[in-house]
């Protein structure tokens, strides 16, 4: 008999009723259609998808949802329907009502505010409005990271290109929705942030990043949202073609759903498939077979957007799969339990049949209107204003003409799921494919006409307005430029509509080559406004005044008018890793940077290291203690080294040194240290070294990301953070260079002194004996394969290389393993070494004392481990016992991740030696910076 907690509630024995709860389906029209009625009454459909094609107003939406729930109740449903829709704000809203539903910025627009509090408030307000009309499930938040910011369809629907930042905002969106009573559904797992398009209607976009690359960036927001209680996850329909994974459709793959999402990321909630009406899927597999594959892959709810015959095919396919034994009843029942649990958290019959409706929306209206204004006022971003053209009143009189040039664009797709429906016809992820069917806002042309009228009203002067297309600059544009005294060019996702980039650049050249009535050359003021993706001209300094609105709803463009005329001081900043990049181009002294020459520079570097050590604040231990010029030289075949110096060619003295490493296995470029003579700081030596380092790393084939701080060599693990004043200065210095230091990760080295008198905490030995974990110490390359497999899936950059050195360094290096005896699986590992090992050469702190010291490095605990801290302490306890046998007086442990690990170590008696902040950024950031 099944355990009690796994038994279904009474009344759920019927297979048809069970299966009905495992589908989410949409329909056409703004009233209940015979098809959706049949799905609810005859097929026991458990979830209904609504999109802009169903929703004309808040009042009618409330009426429609109530009718759907009433049909379900009268048909004998034990639990209410899940009513789901997209409401991402910006240009992607399924429910639009000018009177009752407020407009808020897109996800990237909200990230541009820089306020997690404001993001949370907007999420709550959005969910409250949906809850009022009877919706109980929001298909959000979007958790994708734009790991490739060019030609990606998601654009401003994401929070940006930085995984940690997207994670923080994604969690705030999620918590806000949940606070207002909605169930959440993260999307689009495993990532839509870097897709490659083949162009055929029968092909799906492809993810080419390896699982390791995804884990380091794209999966970060998904992982964190799961940790904070995400209710459901939508798995995309993209294919994956990379090392270790070849998947035709992610949502049909057990590698993606059961292995990656369920086992690796430990997701316990409801998994929703992408819409199976995609042309690529119907062409290659068929919806019936696709439904069976989605269920066997681990999806709980299968999504079908609109076609009734296709929806019937999916239901019949699932039933046939169960009857033929292809799908076990246990899997059906497991999914049903998850769906019922989700419904219990977000709805009840009392709520479903008594929606708050218009009265509640009316009461919210004043506060939500104020919130909308605050959000847009805080999001509009002026990225550059080189010639101080803002406000426009400072460069153009009321009697002069202002020219507005806008692209002929259609509105953004109303919703992501509507977009999926369009794919069944168009086979494309391009939002334009759905534009002629649904829209949450009026057409783009109408919005831009209203922008022209607003500009005219605000300045009490004439605004000349015309559009432009892929035909480029026409004679009419040239004539209008001659007549106008200032020009505004609007772009909308110019990275994907390249004609807009070409047009804007052409207009810029025309404005620069204008002549006054007296024949003198007179540059005409030009403002470029990106009303969708902010990356159109983010790093193109030839566009001197550049503003980003992140969407082109009327609310956004009304706020833009206030910025243009000085009625509002813009507060937004470009989210992600290039927000401060303009500062790289500030003028400064440029030093001659030369390649490191070991024969010429080794002695001078030792002198520089000594000077830097002596500069350390009284009472502080220098990070360079024990380091020599040799410590920075790895000499590994799979690691490309390039080190640089600024030196006095006459005296041979070094003024600065920078070490860089390119780890080919992960495509990571690392700046391992940047040292400047203390007496010559603030002279731009560091800037010159940094610039040369980045340029060199960008030339490495396969570069994917950059890291500030190196685990190997383990001298500077990141930005030193021991002293608050120095930490603040260093963080700001690197931030000004373009590193996103606000999202750094803590890493540290710790020390356990007085080893001779140390004893483990009370109860620790007993606690370790009570766990089903065994520990052993192994040496040599015979163990390399299984240990490196464990490390590869669980460790950060550089750790694998530390383990490789340790495996080849017997008897002075070894690996301690924690294993599960039942299946011999490695649950944790740690490196142990002494001062005679090859590893100690690159961990110089071990050689910095006169007394014997033992080293521990790079603990790695598997996500499968049930008790992280106990396994960590067990590994360290065994390491200490081994080091004691060497008569060591102390133990140094390096490469310790996170504040929580330090708390665990301090309970064992370790104290902080050095703390750092490791910083990562995507390679696309630096590519854009150094291409202009």
Entry summary:
The chain has about 950 residues and is α/β, with parallel strands linked by helices. Strands 20, 21, 22, 23, 24, 25, 26, 27, 28, 29, 30, 31 and 32 form a 13-stranded mixed sheet that branches. The protein has an eight-stranded parallel sheet with strand order 12-9-7-6-3-2-1-13, with helices on both faces. Helix 22 links the parallel strand 23 (about 670-675) and strand 24 (about 705-710).
Count the beta strands.
32
**Major sheet size, sense and barrel closure:** 13 strands, mixed
Mean pLDDT: 87
Which CATH C-level class of the largest domain is it? Alpha Beta
Please, how many helices?
Answer: 29
Oligomer: single chain
N- to C-terminal distance: 68 Å
Q: How many structural domains in the coordinates?
A: 4
Q: What is the architecture of the largest domain at the second tier of CATH?
A: Alpha-Beta Barrel
CATH H-tier superfamily of the largest domain: Glycoside hydrolase, family 3, N-terminal domain
Strand content: 15-25%
Assign an overall shape. globular
Task: Classify the secondary structure makeup into a structural class.
Answer: alpha/beta
Poorly predicted regions: 411-442, 580-587
CATH topology of the largest domain: TIM Barrel
Radius of gyration based on Cα positions: 30 Å
Which percent range fits the helix content?
25-40%
Keywords: Carbohydrate metabolism, Glycoprotein, Glycosidase, Hydrolase
Domain Glycoside hydrolase family 3 N-terminal: 15-341
Domain N-acetyltransferase: 636-708
GO molecular function: acyltransferase activity, transferring groups other than amino-acyl groups; hydrolase activity, hydrolyzing O-glycosyl compounds
